[in-house]
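Long-time lurker, first post. I've been practising inverse folding by hand and with some scripts of my own, and I keep getting stuck on stretches where the structure tokens seem ambiguous. Below is the full token string for one chain I'm working on. Before anyone asks, I'm not after the true native sequence, just a reasonable design that respects the backbone. If someone could post their per-position residues I'd love to compare against what I wrote down in my notebook.
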């Protein structure tokens, strides 16, 4: 009985300690300070301009995550907007972090406007985002996603009609001269 009581007190102590650490991090860490670094990293890696108009916020329940207010991403080496979102939330699964793996548990995009275009040469304006097929030093797995409401502009395709409903929004066919 004494062992059970000691184990129970130790477990409660660990939970209280975790709650205190989360409260301290939440009270002292400002993710908005890192906006310029995030924007610069995106520009450096992709040649695209990321504009984060809204605030960044941390979340700790049900998983560790970040919420982003209004943001947009340009096309590569252009000022034309490729994607815009009113709010995005990304949550990581906790257990894989302990084994040094990043697993995106949930991605929620609200107010997504995405302009996917295919030029006459067959190149799309999102090919550069796919990256190489070579495996990198870490692997990211997307378990689930939720998009609401969305407007997605896609190139005209055989059998694809303007306004075809999708589970995540609407198809809007477009073709460019590029």
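-- Answer (accepted) --
I ran through it position by position. Result:
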């Amino acid at each position: 009985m004494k062992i059970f009581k000691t184990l129970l007190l130790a477990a409660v102590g660990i939970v209280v300690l975790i709650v205190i650490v989360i409260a301290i991090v939440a009270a002292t860490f400002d993710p908005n300070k890192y906006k310029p670094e995030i924007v610069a990293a995106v520009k450096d890696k992709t040649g695209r301009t990321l504009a984060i108009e809204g605030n960044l916020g941390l979340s700790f329940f049900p998983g560790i995550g970040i919420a982003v207010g209004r943001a947009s991403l340009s096309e590569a080496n252009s000022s034309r907007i490729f994607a815009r979102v009113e709010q995005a939330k990304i949550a990581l699964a906790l257990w894989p972090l302990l084994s040094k793996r990043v697993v995106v548990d949930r991605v929620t995009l609200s107010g997504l406007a995405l302009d996917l275009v295919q030029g006459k040469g067959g190149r799309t304006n999102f090919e550069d985002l796919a990256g190489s097929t070579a495996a990198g030093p870490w692997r990211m797995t997307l378990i689930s996603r939720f998009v609401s409401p969305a407007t997605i502009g896609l190139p005209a395709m055989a059998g694809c009609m303007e306004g075809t409903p999708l589970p995540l929004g609407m198809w809007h066919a477009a073709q460019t001269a590029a």
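A couple of notes from the structure itself: Residues 2-28 form the longest helix (27 residues). The longest strand covers residues 102-115. Happy to go over any region you disagree with.
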